[in-house]
Design brief:
With about 700 residues, the protein is α+β, with helices and mostly antiparallel strands. The protein is about 40% helix and about 15% strand. A hairpin with a 5-residue loop joins strand 16 and strand 17 (about 555). The longest helix is centred in the middle third of the chain and has 43 residues, at about 215-260.
Length: about 700
């Protein structure tokens, strides 16, 4: 038997961090767990449009491809109690395949087979009964484009159609998805019999017995096939892993010869086979000097093909984008492996320890960080906590889950530690989760994920949804289906190269207030950092200040919406500190401090509160024009003046107004048809900043 596929398939780690090997995590909002181009294509074809309205096909109906037509007819069949199969196809030398016949699964009759020479041959009853339901396709070329049209269609069946709870059991619709395959193989390897595997999957998915999208027979056949495949290919697969890992090492050595600033390291086992391997690039090492203060260590994915865990280190740059810092492949998830990975990363970064490191929940990784980075704050990424809630609590809480989730989110953002612990106890008691192992796990990590515990530590806005989406997009770019580790190495190198990450150019940043502080900030900060600060500047105008005897200030919203904050002002050193700790958390001054600076007649933010990591001058990735702001302002003034005069003149008579309206409409259409000069438009385009 030949090997199934040599594609390097990456899958999200499903083992739950609670330590119970029988417990696994299904990530909320991420049903597509595999990052493999072929798998994505296949699975999408089998599952898409299942919930959309599908109408009866008709003669003359057009499809872009025969696959689209088959998918449409298959969805129609499922909703109407039968399944279909592909029958004959007709081919010509000029057109290739120009006719496709799709028929009901009970079409035709079984031809009698020659009986095997056994004592008790199986006499299986055929489901085929000569049903004439069908859909025939014909290919045609129209205006140079290929399309398929329905040339014959019949929906007349000579058998009963099945109800929905029966039609799902037809072989055509019984699918074991890749994530379930992994779980089944894990349980089978642990010695679970097939019937217990099925019951456990039903329990984990929260479905009634018999409601899985496959039956026990499918699981038994899958396990039997996999065992035979593994037995037939085990030696070949082991050899492939060893060869590909050695090729990856050779690729690292070749890169080091071409680029003396490229760094890599690896370990070997007792048989001198490559065990763990890590590498980084010159751009990454340089970036760490500015953006290595906050590091995200992502260990979300592992390779099924090679049995390797992928770890990627990211910083966040001054534009709020992920900055690749390093990569590691580990044979296991032990504390020793993570310790080696951290030691290697620090060596690559020339001994510079980050202020904060963000990770997933993992006890082995936590122990390694405590040993190797004792002065670094360990934070659990908020998205790693929130993505697990559904797997952990939706089944035990049932209809109460949505209410629990809403309260958990409020608790997540509380500012005070005492208030958090009080509300936590209330939440646990209210939903009866005192003995829940996942609640106990979250509480044991409480110093690392709730805002009340981490708000005084520097995160550089690494926990925003925008950063997570950018990081996820980066990972998916490097985790498409490669055939070997060397191609994966090439994709990582391309994605990490700063020359392939040119920014979109500086956006025009409108001023929203008349405060000199805002104009000064626009000149020194990147658009990303300026947007964040501008939001605080705008909101600062809604706050009142009360000076205390010691020179500090109480700052409160004029509607008293969010309590009051203490701002300590030390004029001799130009030091300002707020009890909200926003600057310590993000490196951006809060609205409360900005209000006090305004009261103190500051026209510029003190230099120490405009961090170098957020300044334009710290950009490592080239932007197209960093000197276009003045010309942008001049253009805006010219247009405003001209438009104001035109409006005044056109309002004298209706005839004038109609003429101006007609000519402006024509002018706008003409301008839109003109070619765009990227350099100019990127400097002039306005940047609408949300005030929410």
């Amino acid at each position: 038997m030949t090997m199934k596929s040599s594609n390097n398939i990456w899958i999200r780690r499903q083992q739950c961090p609670c330590g119970d090997w029988k417990c696994y995590v299904k990530y909320e909002g991420d049903d597509q767990t595999l990052i493999s181009s072929q798998l994505i294509k296949n699975e999408t074809a089998s599952t898409s449009s299942s919930s959309e309205a599908v109408f009866m096909p008709y003669v003359g109906q057009i499809f872009k491809s025969d696959d689209d037509a088959f998918e449409y007819y298959s969805n129609f069949a499922r909703k109407n109690g039968f399944s279909i199969r592909k029958a004959r196809s007709t081919e010509s030398q000029n057109l290739g395949i120009y006719r496709r016949d799709f028929v009901c699964y009970r079409s035709g009759f079984n031809q009698p087979r020659k009986k095997a020479n056994v004592e008790h041959p199986r006499d299986r009853k055929s489901v085929r009964c000569g049903c004439d339901a069908k859909l025939y396709l014909t290919k045609e070329i129209v205006n140079g484009l290929t399309q398929w049209y329905v040339s014959q269609f019949s929906n007349v069946h000579n058998h009963e159609l099945l109800e929905d709870d029966q039609v799902r059991l037809l072989p055509a619709y019984r699918k074991i998805q890749e994530a379930d395959q992994e779980r089944i193989l894990l349980l089978s390897k642990a010695g679970f019999p097939v019937n217990r595997i099925v019951k456990l999957l039903e329990l984990e998915k929260g479905v009634q017995p018999g409601q899985l999208p496959f039956i026990e027979k499918d699981v038994r056949n899958f396990v039997r096939t996999c065992k035979k495949t593994v037995q037939d290919n085990d030696a070949l697969l082991t050899e492939k892993r060893e060869n590909d890992t050695m090729d990856l090492l050779e690729a690292c050595k070749a890169m080091a010869e071409r680029d003396s600033n490229f760094v890599y390291d690896y370990t070997t086992d007792e048989n001198s086979k490559v065990e763990n391997i890590s590498w980084s690039y010159a751009d990454s090492v340089r970036a760490s000097t500015i953006f290595g203060d906050v590091v995200t260590f992502d260990t979300t994915y592992r390779s099924i093909t090679y049995g390797l865990l992928l770890g990627v280190w990211f910083g966040i740059d001054n534009h709020g984008k992920p900055m690749f810092l390093g990569c590691v492949l580990l044979q296991d998830e032990s504390s020793n492996s993570f310790t080696w990975a951290l030691q290697t990363f620090l060596r690559f970064m020339r001994g510079r320890c980050p202020q904060t490191i963000l990770t997933d929940i993992d006890s082995s990784l936590r122990d390694a960080i405590a040993r190797e980075l004792p002065n670094t704050k360990h934070v659990i990424c908020s998205w790693h906590v929130l993505s697990k809630l559904s797997s952990w609590f939706s089944l035990p809480l049932g209809s109460q889950y949505e209410e629990f989730k809403a309260e958990f989110d409020m608790l997540f953002h509380l500012e005070g530690v005492e208030e958090f612990e009080h509300q936590w106890n209330h939440l646990v008691a209210r939903f009866g989760l005192d003995s829940d192992k996942h609640i106990a796990l979250l509480f044991s990590y409480r110093t690392a994920w709730p805002f009340s515990y981490i708000r005084g530590y520097f995160l550089a806005r690494s926990m925003t949804a925008e950063f997570y989406q950018s990081l996820d997009a980066f990972l998916k770019r490097i985790l498409s289906g490669q055939t070997c580790l060397q191609l994966f190495f090439d994709q990582v190198g391309f994605a990490a190269d700063l020359r392939n990450q040119s920014r979109e150019g500086l956006q025009y940043m409108h001023l929203k207030t008349c405060l000199p502080i805002e104009e000064n900030a626009r000149n020194v900060l990147t658009p990303y950092a300026f947007n964040a600060l501008q939001h605080e500047i705008v909101l600062s105008m809604q706050y009142a200040t009360t000076e205390l005897a010691n020179g500090s200030y109480l700052v409160r919203h004029y509607k008293k919406m969010d309590g009051e904050y203490l701002v300590i002002w030390l004029p001799q050193d130009e030091q300002i500190h707020c009890s909200c700790k926003e600057f310590e958390h993000s490196g951006i001054l809060c609205r409360h401090c900005l209000r006090v600076l305004t009261v103190k007649n500051y026209f510029e933010i003190p230099d120490k509160y405009v961090l170098f990591r957020w300044r334009l001058e710290s950009s490592l990735v080239p932007v197209e024009d960093q000197n276009g702001q003045c010309s942008s302002d001049e253009c805006a003034q010219v247009f405003h003046s001209l438009a104001e005069t035109l409006l005044t003149e056109s309002l004298f008579t209706k005839e004038r107004f109609n003429y101006v309206h007609k000519e402006l409409t024509r002018l706008l259409e003409h301008v839109r048809e003109m070619p765009v000069c990227n350099e100019f438009v990127l400097n002039m385009a306005p940047n609408n900043i949300s005030e929410s």
